[in-house]
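tool_call: predict_structure(chain=1)
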Amino acid sequence: MSKTKVLIPFYSRNHSTEALARAVAEGALAAGAEVRLRRVRELVGPEVMRQVPGWLENATAMNAKYEAPTEADVEWADAIVFGTPTRFGSISSELKAFIDGLGGLWFQGKLNGKIGSVFGSTSSMHGGNESTLLSIYAPMAHLGLIIVPLGYADAAMFKAGTPYGATHVSRQDSLMPDEDQLAVARFQGRRVAEVARSLHGAPEAVAA
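tool_result:
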């Protein structure tokens, strides 16, 4: 049986969302999936990025580690797990631009039936982590993705995260995700891979 294919396109500026993305990838890999981890690119130039301490340096380092997601990645995937920091209670413009660029695949119906899920991080407590995840549910529905939330289907969910997806609060970038939050992200990757396999995987042979 061929491996389930999971794409994780994310945006991260100060590594919190990146850490969650890597944990989601670990969970999907543990479930036997093939994973592509991709970082979407900035929409502004270096002159703007230099106004925020560390932004240009972090972006340069992460872009060297991760390829940018492409339409070919999306078409390849059985499941897409989006990752974003919160921007004023909603999705980051960088990730939204990538989603908005999928109109060609959407028009051809090539996204219908793929699995969709989302995770994210915020800088401050009550900074919009749940509203941000829910804001991505709408475009996922328009794209024709089958949305897979986390619910409370794993013990990790009773310690951290939300039923909508893995989350983290960085407290002005002073904290990285802890083991409880990473466990939720790994569960998300595993859950998405397992659901995608059940929908898209070839049936296993049954002994006579």
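agent: The longest helix spans residues 179-200. Proceeding to next step.
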